[in-house]
Write a structure and sequence with these properties.
The protein is an alpha+beta fold. It has two domains: 129 residues, Probable inorganic polyphosphate/atp-NAD kinase, domain 1 (Rossmann fold); 145 residues, Tumour Suppressor Smad4 (Sandwich). 20% of the residues lie in helices and 36% in strands. The protein contains seven helices and 16 strands. The strands form three sheets. It has a six-stranded antiparallel β-sheet with strand order 6-5-16-13-8-9, with helices on one face. A six-stranded antiparallel β-sheet has the order 12-11-10-7-14-15, with no helix packed on it.
């Protein structure tokens, strides 16, 4: 990889993450790279400034933090095709990131970037937009929103816990009406996150598919569904006189959705490109370690495997 310009984002207000970001910056600058470094967090978004200030394409992004920091990077950098090395420095679960042990030798990691000694994993994303009126109206009322994990349509109120009533269409055909806490429209990557908590299916991140899972539905017949990646999921808020329905992208508030509007969710035209340093990377090992997938209570020895 030819590396001339690098983004280094660290978890906002986390001294450890910032310290390691500075170490990475030092090694890249020694090799003649221009480094754009800044904090990333709920109140800090460095990416629009970085992308607007460059004179040539960004070659690489080093993202130090947890899963939230990696998700924010993916939403902003995936449309530019920028590969991301996300490392769990100052984070918690670290489901999407390389472990701290794999990046603590910062000089060696930088050397590996220049020598192309890593694997690249591409992950499907979804996009959403809000439209007025029926499905013949194809002009959105606002911006396109991207997500690596999921889009969530559910209400938010500072005074009570409102119930939402949502109608879902797939490719123009009504599938169901859901009454409950909301709907999750997830990617395979996001299937192990909020979707899994809502009893949705777990999908391998190498797949291209869309999952829709109701959140605490008031009906035993409301079930999660897995759809082809080319599907368009349309969600309409009903019976929402106080206009409390919101669209959330990867857990971040995106916009409000009023009655008479619909949210269309579909596969995005870009993918997140994650750099993998571990030679023994395994999605199933990640499930066992991060989600504590224990399986049966009684363990049996399989003498036939070898």
């Amino acid at each position: 990889m030819e590396i001339k310009q690098v983004i280094i984002a660290h978890k906002a207000r986390d001294p450890q993450s910032k310290q390691w970001a500075e170490q990475f910056a030092t090694h890249f600058e020694k090799r003649g790279c221009q480094v754009l470094m800044g904090p990333s967090g709920p109140q800090d978004n460095p990416y629009p400034v970085f992308l607007a200030s460059i004179s040539r394409p960004i070659d690489l992004a080093i993202v130090l933090g947890g899963d939230g920091t990696a998700l924010a990077a993916a939403r902003h950098l995936a449309p530019e095709g920028i590969p991301i090395l996300a490392a769990n420095v100052g984070g918690h679960l670290g489901f999407l990131t390389e472990s701290f042990e794999d990046v603590r030798d910062t000089e060696q990691v930088v050397e590996r970037m220049f020598e192309d000694r890593y694997a690249m994993q591409q992950r499907m994303m979804i996009q959403a937009a809000v439209f007025e009126g029926n499905r013949t109206n194809l002009t959105p009322v606002g911006d396109r929103h991207l997500a690596l994990n999921e889009m969530c349509i559910k209400p938010a109120s500072p005074y009570r816990m409102p119930t939402s009533i949502l109608e879902m269409e797939v490719d123009g055909e009504v599938v169901d009406q859901y009454q409950g806490d909301g709907l999750i429209v997830s990617t395979p990557t996001g299937s192990t996150c909020y979707n899994a908590s809502a009893n949705g299916p777990i999908m391998h991140p190498g797949m291209e598919a869309i999952t829709v899972a109701p959140i605490c539905p008031l009906s035993l017949s409301s079930r999660p569904i897995v759809l082809p990646s080319g599907s368009v999921v349309s969600v309409w808020p009903l019976a929402d006189p106080e206009h409390e329905t919101k669209l959330w992208t990867d857990g971040v508030l995106a916009t409000s959705v009023r009655p008479g509007q619909r949210v269309d969710v579909r596969m995005a035209n870009c993918q997140t490109r994650f750099i993998i340093l571990r030679e023994d990377y395994s999605f199933y090992q990640t499930l066992r370690e991060k989600l504590q997938w224990a399986g049966a209570r009684i363990r049996y020895i399989n003498d036939h495997r070898n």
